[in-house]
Amino acid sequence: MRSNKRPLLYTLFMAVALTTVGCNRNTIYHQYHPTPISGWEKNDTLLFITAPAKQRAVVQRDVELRMATNYPYQQLSLIVEQTTLPSTIRRRDTINCQLINPEGKIQGHGINLYQYHFHLPDISINEGDSLHFRIRHNMKRDVLPGIADIGIRLTAY
């Protein structure tokens, strides 16, 4: 009885080829900072600083967060200020994050902490650029319970 291994080898080759070709994105920075789950103060600004870029790139910027079930609102407003050094180019984005839908269903993924990703407009960076992010909440309440972590993910493509 003759075994035909050709389809198996072909499938394995295609899987490796597609994985190699399909992975054209590169995470260049991914960091979280914890916030007190009992209450993130309005004046408590989180700072994220990247190392200088090794090459020019277009960068996808994402703000990520983890929310606990004791978060009291459906939405979260965040102010994201970014400075590119050494050029001192500044950007300011406000993100209105929908965390819970009008029916009360949590929109994130998780069990005790719910994970969210919110996209900011892509930017171009030059070799040697370092990005400095400052993030704070923009809610009416001075102390905001239920937000566990805030993060930044930068992906070059």
The order of strands across the largest sheet is 1-11-4-8-7
- Could you name the CATH topology? Jelly Rolls
Question: Can you tell me the overall shape?
Answer: globular
- Helical element count? 1
**Which stretches of 5+ consecutive residues score pLDDT under 50?**
16-22
List the domain count as a whole number: 1
Strand content: over 45%
Which CATH architecture is right? Sandwich
Number of E-state strands: 11
CATH C-level category:
Mainly Beta
Q: How do the helices and strands follow one another from N- to C-terminus?
A: HEEEEEEEEEEE
**Terminal residue distance:** 49 Å
Can you offer a commentary on this structure?
By secondary structure, this protein is mainly beta. It has one domain: Jelly Rolls, CATH 2.60.120. The protein is built from one helix and eleven strands. The strands form three sheets. Strands 1-11-4-8-7 form a five-stranded antiparallel sheet, with no helix packed on it. A hairpin with a 3-residue loop joins strand 5 and strand 6. The radius of gyration is 20 Å and the shape is globular. It starts with 5 loop residues before the first helix and ends with a strand.
